[in-house]
User: Fold Pentatricopeptide repeat-containing protein from Platanthera zijinensis.
Amino acid sequence: MERIPLKPDDITFIAVLNGCSHAGRAGRLDDAWKVINAMPMPPNDIICRSMLSACLKRGDIAMGRKVAEASVQGGFCDSSSFVLLSNMYAGGGLWGDVRRVRRIMRQREVRKIPGCSWIEVDGFVHEFVVGDISHPLSTEIYSLLESASIQFEYHTFLCED
Assistant:
């Protein structure tokens, strides 16, 4: 792109981000970080979280620290960034760093947003959050999940023989 007179736009950088994601999955985090730092604008929160996620998956704590520093400098310290960083440290057994990240979250009153799932049954969308019992059919749902879990464990046991 540098050799021909093309000015990158938003779509170009989405493609670059996609390439960086693939590079991260391939373990080429240094290459991905070089591409990100060569962009004409600073990385945004999505790019930083994508890199943090790749660092977590690859167990690259040194690169994760660099990305976290860029996230802090860019003001991208939302709950998901903190959780990724904490999980990366936990995966590396750096429990002091885990405590430090969680302490910072408490000090800044950053709360982890619980993940939720949706399922459509007979044209109705049902939303679920872990441990949520507010759904009118939660008793039946959890009973069905327990039964499915037991069957799964039984069949897993049979497959191991």
Q: What stands out?
A: The radius of gyration is 21 Å.
